[in-house]
Amino acid sequence: MGDKCTFGARKPIDINMVNAIIHREVKHFRNYNIYRPKFGLVPVTSKFYAAHDQFLDASEEESQKVENYHHNVMQARVLGPHSKYPAPVTENLVYGWYHEPLMPTDKADRRFNHHIQENINTKIQFIILMANPKIKKE
């Protein structure tokens, strides 16, 4: 009974294999202590807090162009897609594009209105709720 259980025993670790795996994974990584922005590249988005994205010495003409651009963007947002396109262009524009129903409906017409006034489940739930003494009855 003094035999040792070998179920699930691991093979000895080959240290050379582990070193090769680590070398392959690490050889493409570089750690930088100092960040240096590449000023020649155009950023995808600007950062308003970054010193290299500030227009401190912009001329009056450039600042006027920026103001006109902001004004045009604001106007386009106010007008919305209805002013740009005669019909919905994408599937997302379809939802909410048409504000009025295609056919005028009459509430008395039973072909379009199938409202269920009461259901046995809602009646039972209402009775249970009204029987609860913790709920204030109004």
Overall 3D form: flat
Arithmetic mean of pLDDT:
78
Calculate the terminal CA-CA distance, rounded to whole Å: 77 Å
In terms of quaternary structure, the protein is: single chain
Query: How much of the polypeptide forms β-strand, as a percent range?
Result: under 5%
Low-pLDDT parts are none
Helix content: 25-40%
Structural class: mainly alpha
Topology order in helix (H) and strand (E) letters: HHHHH
Q: How would you describe the overall organization of this protein?
A:
It is a single chain. With 138 residues, the protein is mainly alpha-helical. The chain has a domain of 86 residues. The protein is built from 5 helices and no strands. The radius of gyration is 35 Å and the shape is flat. The N and C termini lie far apart (77 Å). The relative contact order is 0.03. The model has no long low-confidence stretch (mean pLDDT 78).
State the main characteristics.
138 residues
Task: Quickly describe the structure.
It contains five helices and no strands. The chain has 138 residues and is mainly alpha-helical. The chain starts with 14 loop residues before the first helix and ends in a 7-residue tail after the last helix.
List the helices and strands and how they pair.
Elements: H1 15-26, H2 60-79, H3 81-84, H4 91-94, H5 120-131
